[in-house]
Specification:
heterodimer, A: Rossmann fold, 3 domains, 23 helices, elongated, B: alpha/beta, Rossmann fold, FTHF_cligase-like_sf (chain B), Lactate utilization protein C (chain B)
Amino acid sequence: MSASEVQTFTPREFHRQAHDALGNPQIRANFRKAMDGLMAKRRDVFSDWDLETLRELGANIRLRALAKLPDLLERLETNCQANGIQVHWAENGDEACRIIREICQRHGAKAVIKGKSMVSEEMHLNAHLEEAGIEALESDLGEYLVQLNEQTPSHIIMPAIHLNTDEISDIMHAKTGTERTRDVDYMTAAARAQLRERFMAADVGISGVNFAVAETGTLCLVENEGNGRMTTAVPPVHIAVTGIEKVVEHLRDVPPLYALLTRSATGQHVTTYFNMISSPRKLGEHDGPNEVHLVLVDSGRSNIYQDDELLDTLRCIRCGACMNHCPVYTRVGGHTYGTTYPGPIGSILMPHMMGLEATKDLPTASSLCGACGEVCPVKIPIPDLLVRLRREAVGEGRGNVPGAGVKRTKKEVAAWKGFQWLATHPGAWRSSTAIVGKLQALMPSKLGPWTEYRTAPKPAKVSLHALVKQHKAKRHQVEKADGEERS
Amino acid sequence: MSARDNILKRLRERTDGPLTAPQSDFAVVTGRGWSQQERVARFERWITSVHGEVIHTSRDDWTATLAKLLEAKGIRRLALGREHPVAVEARAALAEGEVVLIDADRNIETWRHEQFHDTDAGLTSTHGAIAETGSLWLWPTPDEPRLLSLVPPIHIAVLDADTIEDTFFDVVEAHGWAGGMPTNALLISGPSKTADIEQTLAYGVHGPRELVVLLRHAEDRP
């Protein structure tokens, strides 16, 4: 897709979008190249680690945080407030947008600068602020490019991974007047210059949070570019927005998760910056924001929390390793999913946020090869959760997922009931398989989507049951003859 | 009921009942047992692998190394603190030279434009470093504020070799971070970088283009 043709994507059109993406050699090449590189880098960076033990610890830290979630959220709130950070709670994205807008308006903000935050994407914060006449500018280079191109991120860690150097050069040329070039250093320097002016002029900085530490009231941000530090230190007001599941209990829980996050995400042994914020500017300090706000967003998370199996979804530390290793994601790309979080984690998370009516195809966008579960740094059993959501979609789940049963049809239910009766009544089973065998020739060769890529199954002339019976009868005769000969 | 109360109520009245919290064993992130030489070697290997520059020097002679570095890089305007011994020694050594020394311990509102546009480098002390990842540990202060290590295009950090520790976990535990966190605590591992344009690594996207570590050893190295 070029800079000029801007498309919108929706999970309702997953199949059509997947079809289009598969037919786009540029998209396929961009993702293949990037994902191959990321997989190799991750493998190398973990090579001298006891990875299984580290993953076990990561999973265990996240489970402990979830087990104590309501208490830890209260503790986080108390400690943040004691440090001077103002804490806000939002039931959903709209409420979070309103809280953030009101803080901006209270300060008469005209322009906000943003660090990378997937939660803000989830709630479409930029559009909300712009409707209120507040300009929201992304400062992470990938997010900035995606915003210039009027798109959404196609990967949670590398937002512009769907674009190659030439496409980015075209976008920057068209939108900012830079020279057309393949020189990445030139383009990076140009973006630096453009954004530095904006950092200085911004009234409010908005960031996400990677880990929120309950014990100390500390917000941790992981990044390479320095835009996160700029966003949280240059403007006079900093608003951090995060999902309620991002809290961890102790400060010592952070080093193992950080070690897992950077290595799993991009194969880096560490990121350039680990930025830990515990308070606004104190008396006598010379920089940093005078106000720091933390907005805790639920948006369906407390609903996921109700169910022992689905709960594992909330362990996620947003590294993106599951998408980097997913054969489906690599082929169709991030936009095809039409959701804020694409790939395997998106397929198990978005149905809770958007309901299964809109996202019913996502849990089936997997071959269940198991790669996502194997690389997950906190051992989320993603394939099991995909299967669980498939069950929920046909109405066989336990009813925690919004839109459960959306794929349930009377025909299918009747068919399975009939099959169940047949399979538990041996006489009827035998006579019906015998009939099917005799009518073999009438079997249609086209069976809808199944036969688009496969040959139609053909019932055997004689059923396995009948064959075994014949075989037994024959052996009995031979044994009988043998016995007569010997005597 | 407020959003806060609703959310906490839903979490507390969980359908599948209360959860049991597992115990955690942190052995995998500690107990490296490296020698001082190994720590220095690992720190240097990792930070240089991400474009950081390490210059070995001594406690007694480091300001001469600094002066040479400023000359080599053409740094004319250096921002630094006034109270930390690193800043005090640097100021004493550079007082007679041509490099303009900019006071960093001023409210940012009074010198933002100067910091963004007319400062060639920032000089900071460090609290220590981490061998396993090649990371510097900084706790910005009123004397050496947060933006001093971020906004100028070159960051010069002064590190004592004997303050390098094995792992991040070791640092957090040994120094009792949980007992009192500063406004801002930072780990810095190399200059600012991005790979957002087709996975091609580029340095100096928002923060410093260069990070130079003046690694001070207690005695002169051979």
